[in-house]
Amino acid sequence: MLTKTGLMALGAASLALAACAPQVPSAVAAVSDKVYTVSPDTMKVKAGIVTGEVSEMKVTERVEAGTGRVTAPAKLTGKLSLKNTSPDQTVRLVEAKIRYIDMQGKPIVLEDNRTAPSVQVGGTSYGAPPRLDPGQESSHNVDVDFPAAALKAKNLREVSLELSYIPSQFKEETLHFKVSIGGQ
Fold first, then answer.
1. Residue 29 class from Cβ within 10 Å (0-12 exposed, 13-18 middle, 19+ buried)?
2. Using one digit for the tens of pLDDT, what is the confidence trace for 117-171?
3. If residue 92 lies in a helix (H) or strand (E), which one and from where to where?
4. Has residue 130 been placed in a domain?
5. Residues 6+ positions from 136 with CB-CB distance below 8 Å
6. Which residues of 61-79 are buried (b: 16+ CB within 10 A; e: fewer)?
7. I want to staple 84 with a disulfide (CB 3.0 to 4.6 A). Which of 18, 130, 132, 152 is the partner?
8. Is 110 inside a domain boundary?
């Protein structure tokens, strides 16, 4: 009898706990990526002895279906390829900043809670060297915040890439010295 009463109490407790558990919403709003094309999506760039290409550019934001509410703010993504074209200078890559310029030539600022857009080029990218010797190339992923104001029609004139690097002379010389083995 004691066992029967214990089982009934256990069953009642589990029913009470199930009734108190939070209910799972029956309909979860679908979220999809809204992709904005960037034209042209590939640009060749040159900064002194460093040439490069920004390719596969697009802007993506996550939007809730039905309501159009933005769930994740816009990001500019792409690929930055850099090449040292100097025959005799090594380049130490420092940083690459991205600026968004409006139709009046003024910078478009990001919203308060967003990070200033920069591309990791100083050797912190996986597999990317911190320096480029003459003729050497490197590739970097671009994944930076994009201002919501720039998504409005005819508001963005250009995207500016500010590349900082330190050039230094690259010399390769051969040293010759005389030796003798075992007193010969």
1. exposed
2. 888 887 554 555 578 999 999 999 999 999 999 998 889 999 998 988 999 876 6
3. strand 89-102
4. yes
5. 83, 84, 129
6. bebeeeeeeeeebbbbbbe
7. 132
8. yes
